[in-house]
Amino acid sequence: MVNDGGQLYTMEGVAAGLIMLLTAYIVISTTSIYTPGDTHIPDMQLEQLGSDVLAMMDTPNAKDDDKSDLERFIADNNSDGFRAAFLDYCNMTAGDTDDLHMSASVTYRSGDSVGEYQFVGADNTWTGRESAVRVTRWVQLSERPAVLPGVSIENRSQAVLVEVLLWRA
Amino acid sequence: MACMNEDGQWIVLMGLLVAVGLFFLALIINQSVLVGQTTAEGVLEFPKNDIRDLREAVFDYVDTFGGANNLTTGAVRQDIVAISLERKNAVVNFSVESQVEVSGHYLHPVTIHYYNGVTEYNENVYY
Fold first, then answer.
1. Nearest neighbour of B76 by CB, restricted to A30, A33, A158
2. Does A133 touch chain B (CB under 8 A)?
3. Phi, psi angles (nearest 5°) of residue A136
4. ipTM value of the model?
5. Cβ within 8 Å, pair A47-B49
6. What are the pLDDT digits (tens) for A4-54?
7. What residues form the membrane-spanning segments (chain A) (predicted)?
């Protein structure tokens, strides 16, 4: 007859082995925990990038230059120029270019109402489900901006708000 | 049951201790899911860029109009107040006084107020 007296030791050994494996796994996995806080970091970085780009575009190129590029783009309604410059600055990285996309609108006041017109339309990557971030910049104009017909803006010195939606496709 | 061998009770007790230990480790792992939640929310909630934006707008305004107070400047001020309320859900106001001498420089005293219901920001600055 086979003696089964050693079976208890075998089971204890297996149990101890499992406990040690589990402990090692827990200890190692605690060094990197993906928390909800981490998911917001790309959004925060994108927002900072967009703000920086707008701030840079709103800086005149030379000391005796009275207008910034951003002011010129808005005043002349040069949406293609704005889109090209903005995306150029955004997508510039040390290696391959990034894949950021944008749309932009301008908010103005007319009398007691506040209106808005689309400055740069979204391109065909826009599905409506992107986690886009919004960056804004105030622009002061000395007269009404040249805009498409149908948008009535008073002709006076004014402050308008440029809002850019920025997303990674 | 007088003759029963009780040597195995130590093993059972050790098993219980290890189980309790694992339970506490699981609790700690469970708590770690919430790490950074309030921090991230706080960072996202704080309107850093909105306040910077407003300051830039006010300084642009001072660059253009100085301490002048007339129909033109009133309209620009009203633009900033109305659009802030509409698009940024923030009550803002600012005032610019005429220049005073500060340590040999002539600067405008500027007050800026910003309140979006959560964050309140007030600033007095010479620009």
1. A158
2. no
3. -130, 160
4. 0.71
5. yes
6. 778 888 889 999 999 999 999 988 887 776 666 666 778 888 888 999 999
7. 14-34
